[in-house]
């Protein structure tokens, strides 16, 4: 965009530069806060993955029991199901992210005498795994939202630092040079006009003196 090289434009560019420089620290602070929140979300997601892996490892002895059992695995899976997942919402540095309020399960009644002793442990593990998976899904959603917000605010900071502020400063420099050139040109024109008037006055006087002498 072409900038006018005059005093009004100079004031406008100075005002813009002052505004950008005043606004940039708050943008940078928000960028740092969002980056910290994003890193926390990444850690929470990694912790959920680690807990799922640990639960899977802890469940390996049960898998060996299942392998030697005549009870179909699908029948065991039907003993417990997620009845309801209650999600909330949290404001993290201006970003709305989900939270887990509660996970409710429904167990099918079964006879502890008719089924092996380890079925109780299987049911507990199924509930724990389902709870962890819900937690991981929410953690992943939080991480994605905060990553997107961090990327967006970083782009705005870069816009201010690398485009808006340098452009305004450059425009101010150009306008100052132009105004200085204009001032010098005005001084030169003024001097030339004075010399011209002075020469014209001397010429008139000389002509008058010649007319008087004749």
TrEMBL record:
NCBIfam families with a match to the protein in the record: PRK02195.1, V_ATPase_subD
Name of this protein: V-type ATP synthase subunit D
Family: Belongs to the V-ATPase D subunit family.
Keywords, alphabetical: Ion transport, Transport
Annotated region described as Disordered, given as residue ranges: 195-214
Domain of life where this protein originates: Bacteria
InterPro entries per the UniProt record, alphabetical: V_ATPase_D
């Amino acid at each position: 965009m072409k900038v006018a090289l005059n005093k009004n434009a100079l004031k406008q560019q100075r005002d813009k530069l002052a505004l950008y420089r005043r606004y940039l620290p708050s943008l940078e602070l928000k960028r740092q806060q969002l980056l910290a929140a994003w890193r926390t979300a990444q850690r929470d997601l990694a912790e959920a993955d680690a807990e799922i892996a640990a639960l899977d490892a802890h469940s390996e002895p049960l898998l060996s029991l299942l392998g030697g059992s005549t009870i179909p695995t699908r029948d065991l899976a039907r003993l417990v199901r997620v009845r309801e997942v209650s999600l909330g919402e949290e404001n993290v540095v201006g970003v709305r992210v989900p939270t887990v309020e509660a996970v409710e399960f429904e167990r099918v009644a079964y006879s502890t005498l008719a089924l092996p002793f380890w079925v109780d442990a299987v049911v507990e593990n199924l509930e724990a795994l389902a709870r962890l998976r819900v937690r991981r899904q929410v953690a992943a959603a939080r991480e994605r939202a905060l990553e997107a917000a961090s990327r967006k605010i970083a782009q705005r900071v870069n816009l201010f630092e690398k485009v808006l502020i340098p452009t305004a400063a450059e425009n101010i420099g150009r306008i100052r040079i132009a105004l200085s050139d204009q001032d010098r040109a005005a001084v030169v024109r003024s001097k030339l006009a004075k010399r011209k008037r002075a020469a014209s006055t001397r010429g008139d006087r000389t002509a008058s003196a010649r007319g008087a002498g004749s």
